[in-house]
Amino acid sequence: MRTHQLLRTGILAAVLALGGTAAALAHTEVRSTSPANGKPAKTTITRTTVTFNGQLRSGTLRVVGPGSRIVSRGKGGRDPRNVRRLLVGLRGGLKPGLYRASWTIVAADGHRQRGSFRFRLRR
Ligand SMILES: [Cu+2]
Q1: Distance, CA 26 to ligand 1 centroid (Å)?
Q2: Quick one: average pLDDT of 15-20?
Q3: What pLDDT, on the 0 to 100 scale, is given for residue 8?
Q4: Three-state secondary-structure class, residue 29
Q5: What is the 110 CA–ligand 1 centroid distance (Å)?
Q6: How would you label 56-66 residue by residue, b for 16+ Cβ within 10 Å and e otherwise?
Q7: Distance between CA 14 and CA 19 in Å, rounded?
C-alpha cells in the first residue's frame, strides 16, 4: 500500500515536471530589438521596438537613459501594425550614452513575462 502510494506520487511528480518544462519551452521569446541589444545606434532614433516569436495580448515598453531620465513617451504597447511587436516612441534631444529598455508582456498563452536590454547611443 505504502509503496503503491509512493509510486503514484513519484509518477505524478514526474508528469508535473515534464509539463512544467514543456510550458517553459513554449514561452514567448524575443526575436529582435531595435536598437539591437548591446549595439550602438544614433541619438536621432525616434522609437524602440521589441519583436517576439509569438503574438502578444498586451505589453509595455519603457526606456531610461543617462541620469536615469525616462526618454520613452507614455507606456508603449503593441505595435498596431504587428501583433508580435512592442513599440514606444522616444523623446527628442537624446543624449549620447547608455540606455536600458524594459518590457513587460502578456503573451498569447496568458503568461506574463518581463525583460530588458541595453543599447548605446552615439552622435
Ligand atoms: Cu508561456
Answers
A1: 5
A2: 50
A3: 54
A4: coil
A5: 7
A6: beebbbbbbbe
A7: 9
CA of 46 to the centre of ligand 1 (A): 30
Measured from the Cβ of residue 36, the count of other Cβ atoms closer than 10 Å reads: 11
Q: How far is ligand 1, taken at its centre, from the CA of residue 69, in Å?
A: 32
Pairing relation of β-strands 112-122 and 40-42?
A: parallel
CA 116 to ligand 1 center in whole angstroms: 17
Distance 48 CA to ligand 1 centre (A): 23
Thinking of the domain 29-122, which architecture would CATH place it in?
Sandwich (2.60)
- Mean pLDDT estimate for the chain: 87
CA atoms within a 13 Å half-sphere pointing along the CA-CB vector of 59 = 36
At 67-123, the pLDDT tens digits run 999 999 999 999 999 999 999 999 999 999 999 999 999 999 999 999 999 999 999
C-alpha distances out from residue 22 to 58, 66, 106, 121, Å: 23, 40, 18, 38
